[in-house]
């Protein structure tokens, strides 16, 4: 298991370098010259050229990339073009918010999806399964911003229970923080929950027809243990895959939901950076998001090793 | 052959199935898949249940454990007695206590019958602990002990291995260890050697014999292979299209079959003729539960069929009745008294 883990980790490093290169190149292709914007409206051609040089934009592409990646390795992703913040600083500011939102959303999703998926799998083809399938189809096809607005209207505006928008830092008030996270967490959680329920229902009902489940029943193991222990460990692989995909996606910042609820997370930072053509900021966010996705994939891969003993050897 | 097998009723049977009827829901209503099956097994005895694929053998054994999928299956009649306990109608919790403890089962597919996600020893220990409510270390010791008993070398180390690290024969040994770990009174073995090749098959049969003798287990040995039945069983029950068509002690069945279907099965056994193996088959195919022939269900394929075979007898409304010819042999053939059937050669 340990060699398996080390091998997986070693595989990630070249991947990150490749991704960072691609990201750097692609972002530079965004039309528009940031030097013109930065130098100001009435800048002369010389001033613009000076700005270009100061920003390092006149160097060759490879020199620019080298400077950037060698900084990035030391945790320095450069300076925002439009604010006094460093890119690293801005990301570190925003990431905990997105992380908290993701954790809350995944908790909501799992609390609903696991029981719902099990019930649907146990009653495949009968009414509980049909109900779950219908609800998940609705959940999957419903855009999250629409669900978010709906929740705001029903739960925040119609009743004074939850705040419609806003964010309270954890350091300020734990209760306020949690309070602000409830609606966005549900909005994101319900979408994730639908995917996970559907996946769990499918894989668990397949697993429950396997011979080893019949063996466990024939040996007198209790129904609940058969399903939860013997069934779920085998059914978990595709579920973990989907979950990892969703978590990676959420950790990159859920632009729409963060906007709807006014949450200062990574998604919100990203959208600002794109609108302002804050190139170092965009590069930083994309590379960090990519690294996060790869990290999540690593965790998912490691969980395969735990869930499926055969994987460890290959 | 053990003394118990001479005649039914010399010792109270451990498991007694009487007139079992099982139906499955189909597009065209309920199909009777097991139709009035009766048999019993005594302590340390092995009874074979033989018949072609689809004759209802697996359904019968799953019914004993209460493991039929419902829907689509339902048990519509009969009785399954384990000692003094009637198993039909027990609640699920009560059945769960009996399964694996007093009645255990092993299956045809050794490659898929163990859970790929847990070490083999853990799977055995879990069953032992569930029924004996002992400590983890006691259960683990029992798992290793059982793996040793079924002939797995270096059992303490192999107990930590996963099923995919075992060969097919080793997995079937591990399945037997799992089934026998609580010293069950009855072992249901559903085609336990069918998926294995010749030498491994013989080893597993040897193992089952020695386990039966050590634990005094009553074995119900389900198979489509009369050759295997002859190897291990004391008595056999031959099934065709959901019914028992012949019951007899194994030597009688083998050398003096009393039903043309048994004769046909014996004729289809591989023969060593001058060094080449000749594989014969019974002509035609078995009827499906939804479309059973009237009268004797075997008559469309029977070499001895006469027009009267297609008509129900007065003693059985929907076919031919099973008739006792002696206190240990029964046959469901209207012409049984006139026929001289060929036994194994
Ligand atoms: N899950 C099921 N659904 C519908 N019919 C079934 C099912 N299992 C078994 N049957 C029916 O029961 C009959 C007997 O099956 P089975 O007991 O498995 O035969 P055997 O074990 O003798 O090969 C088959 O002909 C099949 O039509
Ligand atoms: S009753 Fe007739 S058809 Fe049926 S087995 Fe006997 S001889 Fe053959
Ligand atoms: Mg079968």
TrEMBL record, chain A:
Residues 95-304 form the ABC transmembrane type-1 domain. PROSITE patterns: ABC_TM1 (PS50928). InterPro entries: BPD_transp_1_N, MetI-like, MetI-like_sf. It is a multi-pass membrane protein. Its main location: membrane. Keywords: Cell membrane, Membrane, Transmembrane, Transmembrane helix, Transport. It is found in: Cell membrane. It holds the Pfam family BPD_transp_1_N. GO terms for cellular component: plasma membrane. GO terms for biological process: transmembrane transport. Signal peptide: none annotated. The chain crosses the membrane at residues 12-30, 99-122, 134-162, 174-194, 239-261, 281-307. Belongs to the binding-protein-dependent transport system permease family. This is Peptide/nickel transport system permease protein.
Automatic annotation (TrEMBL), chain B:
GO terms for molecular function: ATP binding; ATP hydrolysis activity. Keywords: ATP-binding, Cell membrane, Membrane, Nucleotide-binding, Transport. It comes from Tamaricihabitans halophyticus. One of its GO terms (biological process) is peptide transport. The keyword Cell membrane applies. It holds the Pfam family ABC_tran. Belongs to the ABC transporter superfamily. This is Peptide/nickel transport system ATP-binding protein. It is found in: Cell membrane.
